[in-house]
Amino acid sequence: KATVSVLNCRGGRCCRKRPSVMTRRVLRRLLGASAAAGGAAWGLTITVNDEWDHYFPPAAPEAPPGVRERVVVLGTGWGALEVVRKLSPEHDVVMVSPRPHFTYTPLLAGASVGTVSRQTIVEPVRDFLKRENTKKKGARHSYVQGTCEDLNLEKKTVTVRRITDASADDKQDFEIDFDKLVVAVGAQTATFGIPGVSQHALFLKEVSDAAAVRRRLLNCLEKASSLLSESAVRGPAEAPKLVAKAEQLLNFMVVGGGPTGVELSGELADFIRTDVRRNFGDALADKVKINLVEAMPRILGPFDPALGEYAVQHLTGTGVSVQTNTAVKRVLSSTSAVIQGQDGTEAEVDFGFLVWAAGIATRPFSLKVAEKLGQYTPGEGRPPRGIAVDGHLRVKVNGEKLTPAAAENARSSVYAIGDCAVSGHAPTAQVAAQEGKYLGRVLRDGFHTTCAHPDAAPAAAPFAYNHNGSMAFLGNRSAIAQIPGGHRPAMNYMWRTLHGADRGVPEADTKAPDQHLTGAPAFVFWRSVYFSKLLSSTNRLSIASDWISAELFGRNVVNTNAPHMERKLD
Question: Which terminus, N or C, of the chain has the lesser number of Cβ atoms within 10 Å?
Fold first, then answer.
């Protein structure tokens, strides 16, 4: 009978138990708590990133039919994308840039060693604009791949050079007219006039730079492995030479003690300690040398000295040689340079590669715009760091060098943000993003105000930068973070009343010290903050997958761009 009952069972109560009342109650509470925690995390992220008006746009008077405003945005960086996100559907946006994607620059160091793939740290501009057009009913945002070559203030046009194939002579120039122009072209890597840097050094500013670093890194490892294997079978006369050549290939130089150089050094140390040691063996991994070279007395100058010292100790513990007061005088080739040590003596150093991460410089187009505005005359004095702007991010104009029409158009229609602008703030991604949000709101609200009240002059408060802190990854699941202490709630009447604060104390006297995070908590904080900055679900899923894969299975050490695999085309 038991056999028959089992065979006749169809999933009834005889073969499964329903969860008890207590279990169901616990599950419901866990589900509710998870939903509440997720909602709180989402709300906190939106608040910290200042994104509430992106999800809940403010009510605004509708523009008259057919009345639209064309905004031309030059660039696809942090500031440029934030401007576009804040604009209204009545704005016809044209983004112009030779780079058809946005790059999450803090993750470039990880892409150089394979912690994340290069495809996951970019946001295609066309996908971004498609989402914006879908979200904003009636929006007409578009992208043009090209470089901006000239600016005509009297006609309110920019000359764009379309580039369809960089290797062919098919470049074409055309003009785009604008009602508002936002210059957000960023900056380029500074070489400080040191001979040989631009010709022989690797940079780390674009995705292509990360690809070049990874390719050279893997080539050096493979060549060194071959040399060490050959030395094991050669005689005592030839083996030392082969080992010395391998050691030269395994000597890596990183120039620049800012966050980029420090993070790249940390990523390299992690890569060598785990994946290289596992795949190439201890004999090769023990010969790798990572040198972080900084001309100033200490690394991470913008951070508190205590955090800088912590970074030095941590990097040194992971095998990085931190060399301060050390300067590169000239780069002789892709494998040698003359370096001045702490004692002032110069010596030629051989290496496998040199990555230059030592500052930024003004792009040629930014200098051309500054010249058009009368801010700069070639050959007269030192070139400016960028385009000078006022407190509202409008470009400054030297009326004596411009026609009245050009000066008026520049003052009312041209803006500059980010690394290409001289606004009194540091040229960082954080500043660029906040400037972009501010300017997008100003253009959005100003357009709607003008439509509702044509005779009223739009008024906006000046840009106010809110520093949210600084972070740097150090490798081995460790980082540092400096979070501004800000001001104690001196302006909060309730707090001051409850705590008996002296109302006569000036606000500056109540400034709390900056908060420091180090080690694993700072690492979690570092990843969480940058994860929250990702713009699309695709990027979030891809980068999370890359991080998990690197932790569980290691990084890929295959060089798919090996020289013998390259196909030569006519």
Answer: C
> Any idea which residue has 């879908």 for tokens?
134
DSSP letter for 410, please.
H
CA distance 163 to 142: 16
Which pLDDT tens digit goes with each residue over 540-550? 999 999 999 99
244-253 in b/e form (b: 16+ CB < 10 A) is ebbbbbbbbb
CB atoms within 10 A of CB 74: 26
Strands 202-203 and 188-189: unpaired
Give the separation between CA 16 and CA 509, rounded to whole angstroms. Answer: 68
CA distance to 93, 148, 152, 384, per residue, from 378 (Å): 32, 19, 18, 10
Instruction: Out of 9-18, 139-148, 237-246, 340-349, pick the least confident.
Output: 9-18
Distances (CA, A) of 261 to 32, 113, 189, 291, 356: 44, 14, 13, 10, 8
Record the pTM: 0.85
Nearest to 421 by CA among 184, 148, 120: 184
The residue assigned the tokens 């044209």 is 94
Closest among 202, 299, 220, 320 to 256, alpha carbons compared: 299
Q: Of all helices (H) and strands (E), which one includes residue 322? A: strand 320-323
Of 411, 463, 409, 458, residue with least CA distance to 435: 463
Q: What span, in angstroms and rounded, lies between the C-alpha atoms of 74 and 375?
A: 20
Strands 479-483, 470-473: pairing kind:
antiparallel
| Residue burial 150-164, b: 16+ Cβ < 10 Å; e: rest | ebebeebbbebeeee
pLDDT 10s digits, 167-222: 545 568 899 999 999 999 999 999 999 999 999 999 999 999 999 999 999 999 99
For residues 61 and 450, the answer to whether their CB atoms sit within 8 Å is no
268: Cβ contacts below 8 Å, ≥ 6 apart: 112, 113, 217, 252, 254, 290, 320, 475
Q: Let me know: does 250 contact 284? Beta carbons within 8 Å.
A: yes
- Sign, CA torsion 133/138/141/142: positive
pLDDT of 509 above 60: no
Alpha-carbon Rg for the chain in angstroms: 28
Mean pLDDT of the chain: 86
d(CA 93, CA 124) in angstroms, rounded, equals: 16
Residue for token pair 């979070």: 483
The token duo for 531 is 């994860």
Please give the full DSSP string across 214-257, using - where no structure is assigned: HHHHHHHHHHHHHHHHHHTTS-TTTHHHHHHHHHHHTEEEEE--
Distance between CA atoms of residues 2 and 407, nearest Å: 96
Q: What gap in Å lies between CA 57 and CA 176, rounded to an integer?
A: 29
Contact between 305 and 298 (Cβ < 8 Å): yes
* AA identity, residue 425: H
List, for residues 341-398, the tens digit of each pLDDT value. Answer: 999 999 999 999 999 999 899 999 999 999 999 998 888 888 899 999 999 999 999 8
